[in-house]
Structures are given as structure tokens and as C-alpha cells.
Amino acid sequence: MSDTPETSSVLPAAAAPVAPHARPQTLPLVALLVAVLALAAAAWSWSDGRERIRDLKTELGRRLAESGKDASETRLLARNADDVMRQINEKVAHIESQMTTSQQQQLALETLYKDLAQGRDQWTLAEIEQVLLTAAQQLQLAGNVKAAIIALEGADTRLQRVGKPQFTALRRAIAADLANLRAVPSLDEVGASARIEALVARHADWPLASAQGSETTLAPRRASATNLGQELWTELKRIVQIRRMEGSEAVLLPPDQAYFLRENLRLRLLSARLALLAQDQAAFRADLRAVSEMLERYFNTRDAGVAAALKEVKRLSGLQIAIRLPGIDASLAALDAYKGDH
Q1: Which is nearest to 156 in space by CA: 143, 174, 131, 144?
Q2: Which of 173, 286, 318, 330 would you call most buried, defined as having the most Cβ atoms within 10 angstroms of its Cβ?
Q3: CB within 8 A of 307, min separation 6: which ones?
Q4: Largest Cα–Cα distance in the chain?
């Protein structure tokens, strides 16, 4: 609508320089045509503008609608993302809580294991200490080297099963004590005691020297019963017998003293057996020397039993029963040192 005044203002300008001699009939037609064309152009331009504006509005509306839809989807996605993040945070918090609980449980288990390990070590040490004390008592009181060796070997086997390096020093000390005990010369106390008991059991069968008699030759009795003198002589020979005693002294013992002699011999043998068990070397040899002297002086040394008894007594006298036994001080000291450190 604004293009119309501009057209009317142009027309007088265009018509002003026309010469007076031009045809006046063609001027209105040209002006009208120009005006119509201008009006058509303006109308077309206005219509085209409106179409473009409408298209722009449509496009803008469509764009706005799509933008709104995208915004809705974005908001929906944002809400979904928030939900997912919240779930993830909850799961992470739950996992962290479980990890914290697991760490606490692990610490508790480690503490419990340490307590149990310490308790087991203390129990093992208590057992080892009892075994070592038993071995020491066997050595000091009974002199039983074999029992002490068995006890120390058992203690070392127990420590080997535990298999902990902190017991290495204790095992070394036990090994050193075992080497010292194994180097001790062995004495068969049971066998020696049995040999003495055998002598005690046979002592009543040994004949005394006073019962030894030389062979007497009796004159043959004549068949003649009338020779009274020969018969009397034969009877006298039967009643009175002449015996020769070996040695410079003739020991004739009545039956009651023979009994006490055998009892004294038995007591000496039993005393030698007690000295053997007590490892009293001096008393052991003194008792056996007394037994040997009684056998040589009062018993018939020609008898096989007495001769065998003398040989057995001499062999027993040669035994070394007083053996200096080593202790297990190294093992006990190592045990005390470990207990002091822990």
C-alpha cells in the first residue's frame, strides 16, 4: 500500500519534459499501464513477502516444535541420566560399604590369625619346655641317656613340623645337645644288672671249700668174716676221712656259718647291683672285690660253677659305670632366650 504515492509522484516527473507537440492520448494509457504494472509488482512482492513470512513462520514453528521436542527429550534424557547416576552412586556407595566391611573383616581375621598363631606358638613352646625338662630330669636323676635322646629327638621333630624360622636357634641348640649325648659311651645297665641277678640266683649251688675231700682208697673187704681186725679197720676208715685243702689256710665252716657266708655273699652281690644303678664306681668295684675274695677263700674254686662265677665277677669289675653325662643346657638357654624375646 505504500508503493502507490511513489508511483503517482513519478508520473508527473516523467510527463514533465514531454513536448507540447506529443500526443496527449497516449500519456494516460502509459501512465495507467505503468501504474498497473507497478501495482502488480507491488502486489506480487507483497504476496511473495507474505508467503515467505508464512513459510518462515512455519519453518520457525516447526523448528521451535522440534526444538521443544528435543528439549523434552533432552530433559527426559537428563532425568534418566540423573536416575542412572543416582543408581550408580548408590551402587558405588554400597560397594564402598562392602569393601569397608570386607577390609574390617580381613583385619579381624588377620588379628585372629595372629592371636591363634601366637597361641599355637606358646602351646608349642610349652610342650617343648616340658619335653626338655623331662630329658634333663632323666639325665640328672637316672642317668638315662637313651631317654634323653628320644625326648630331644621328639622336640626337634615337633619344631620341624611347625616349620617357623624363629625356632631355628632353638633347633640348633637341640642338635648340639643331641650330638653330645650321642657321643656318650653306652652302658648296658639292664644287661649288667641281669648278670648280677643271675649270680645271686646261683650262689646257693656253689660248693664250699670245706666240702672238698680227697679220694680215699678203701681196702677191699675180704670175704672172710672171721678176720675181725680187718673189718674194724675198714669201719674206722669209713668214719675218719683225711682231706687235703687247697691253699695255705684251711677254712672249715660249720653249717650255721656256711649259711651266713652265703647270705653275706648274696648281700654283696645285691649291693653291687644297687651301686651299678646309682653309677657309684667305687662301691661297685668294692662289692665285687669282696665277692671275688669270698669265692676264692671259702668256695671250691675247682668247681665249674664257682670258676665261672669268678670270671663273671672279674668281667663285671671291669665295667666303667661312672660316666660323666653332658647336660642340655644349650637347649634350655635357647628356649629361655626365645621366651624372653617374645
Answers
A1: 174
A2: 173
A3: 301
A4: 245
